[in-house]
Specification:
Length: 227
Amino acid sequence: MTRKILTGLSSQAYEHPFDRKALASLQNMPGASLLLKKINEYGIDRLLRLQSLGSEIRISPRNFPELHQAFVETCEILDVAPLPELYLFRGRGNIETYIVGIEKPLVGINLDAMEWLDANELLYIFGHEVAHIKSQQMGYHQIAIVMPTLKNLLSSTTLGVGGLVAGGMERGLYNWRMMARFTADRAGLLACQDIDVATTTLMKLAGLPDEYLTTAVIEDFLIHPSP
């Protein structure tokens, strides 16, 4: 199918109101800006990047052309430039993707995702990740990633923020990250531009490979459960 290139697309056009509300609440929490500054000072951005560079395979048009092309097309459709780097990492029996990097973002996708998802579904999953770049959320996104590791440090005086994480900060980050998924899902749909593709991708993310995606299974998946 021919997909529309969304030149000049603004993230505000598809950002979910729950995402905006949760992010605003997080940004208004005492110490949030200080925490972001401290994490940047301690080179977390560089450490996360080096972790990918040192243990994963960088994707190029030569080694995995179909995977690379799907990524390029996604970024073209969502008007994300310059093109982030793309890395492939070991499969663990389920689909996994991630994005890190503020100055030089990179996206990681695992072997299971490459094998389970077709070219159209890859657009959805890539759109879901690059939405964080488009919305300029990478700073808080990375805080959420490293928070489990930094929790004990942040509870001491090591980084100069004392017990900042105690109380609402950690919960605020978790809540925002959950709400940001609504925005990411919208970006994924804009990338693939097919609701059926979005549906099968979500089902594969839930752990179902192609052979289980029968009409009955898909229809039941789409039925909203009663409250």
